[in-house]
Specification:
Keywords: Cytoplasm, Redox-active center. Belongs to the glutaredoxin family. CC-type subfamily. The chain is of the alpha+beta class and 125 residues long. It is built from five helices and six strands, in the order ββαβαβαββαα.
Amino acid sequence: MQYHAAAAEAGTWEYVTAAQGATMEEVEQLAAESAVVIFSVSTCCMCHAVKRLFWGMGVSAAVVELDEDPRWEEIDRALARLLGGTPVPVMFIGGKLVGTMDRVMAAHIDGTLVSLLKEAGAFWL
């Protein structure tokens, strides 16, 4: 399942159906459909933290909850091929793979995350 944070002001998430396929190209296509895409697992605390980080920054992110998608294993395998492993969350900004939580937090700390988000048109405020 995928959802958009378009209604984040009200503290709600708008759910939409994830893509049917899960090949590498389809994951990349999903990643290119929104300025920020987060592949997540609903019970993962790090996934929750990164969603809150982006929401707190005023970013409208599309989130693919792998554990709520019937094809999660295929999506997970495609992400593993991109990353060389399967840690979540996995973030794409502007259609480009940023990586996992450690890369996003490093970009946030060194100040480059905001410029990536601006270039992608990710801010909804």
